[in-house]
Amino acid sequence: MGNIKNIANMLKPNHDEINRQKFVSILRKKILVDFAEDMKSVYKNKVEPKFNDLNSRLPINGREIRTHMLKEMIFKGWSSLRYNAQLMTWLSVKSCIERDLSKMIELSNKIQKLNPTGGSLSLDSNVKVPREITELDIHLMPGCFHTEYTDHDVAQGALYHYGTSVFSGGLQHRKLVKGSVGTSIANFLKIAFPNFKPDKILDIGCTAGANTIPYGEIFSNAEIHGIDIGASLLRFAHARAESENIPIHFHQKNALETGFESNTFDFITSSFFFHEVSVKDTNKILKECYRLLKPGGLMLHMELPPSNETDPYYNFYLDWDAFYNNEPHYLKFRELDFKLLVNQAGFEKNKLLFTRIPNFPSTSKEEFENSILNKSTLRRDHG
Predict the structure, then answer these.
(1) Alpha-carbon distance 133 to 143, whole Å?
(2) Phi (first) and psi of residue 38, to 5 degrees
(3) In this model, does residue 296 exceed pLDDT 60?
(4) Which of 28, 26, 16 has the alpha carbon at shortest distance from 84?
(5) What share of the chain is helix, strand, coil (3-state, %, to 5)?
(6) Shortest CA distance to 355 belongs to which of 371, 366, 367, 337?
(7) Vertex 41, ends 38 and 42: CA angle to 5°?
(8) The model's pTM
């Protein structure tokens, strides 16, 4: 087939579109860094002392801080700007996608027929899409993860991929090189568990495939599977993986009941997936992971920090998404005892590891490796 055009590089924004996207990236940085520091200063110098005078103590959680910050003009202004910048993120790439959608669909269809690298795409229109996805545009992304506007659609996959590039464009510490989460986890495994050579890998909630592809680069001999409920996401992911010469098998499945046989995978992972499902479904998905994981396998999920590990103000700041970014399970997830949930799903307490992994794309290799090896809690054995 020769060189395959990469669907992740197809869009050709014009002069105005490029500058609009750059503006949105810079605006988001201004809001999330500079303006956020101004808001924190108001909290420290005004709201916190006032709270202390009224209650003879400092706030103990983000909810208490939120009650008082809602009255402050700086929060109202900051929140309004952040909300609209989130909407602008998606709108800044929408015109490009609509203009080139037919070309992306044509490429996706061509790749599906040939599967030049050996990956695959398995779609199932009978998969039940969860209510929190059909009723809300998560991340304020128009159409969310599941909407299809035409036959063989890839629009939502393109919107997610190109939109998140704008989303992170102005924040160097969140620089995207492929999928920064998948790249970080894969390199963490390589360093922390050098003898771990998985035969089969499962990525849950793989969206447009950016965080699935790095596992194929690090573990090139592994058979890799990614699941999600959005057909458009998966078509985009499959086309991208094939063009990058990474054979991945993408499936339209609900993580609650995947249909895979028990003891199938050596490694199961996800990238900021669980905070977008209910507590009830989190329990079910962890039990499904336990069923699917082979004896001696590893499971690793990158997620938001638990609220009991961060200070009250940072909890208030993080939980903005629960109220304004259409992520209704966000706050409750952060308050969960995830260790207990994993144990209740069947995993042994003495084999659980909770750690922080640096962002690999924006960290030097030496610094990343030292950070992993110097963690006193790191277990070299697994099972």
Answers:
(1) 9
(2) -65, -40
(3) yes
(4) 28
(5) 55, 10, 35
(6) 371
(7) 90
(8) 0.94
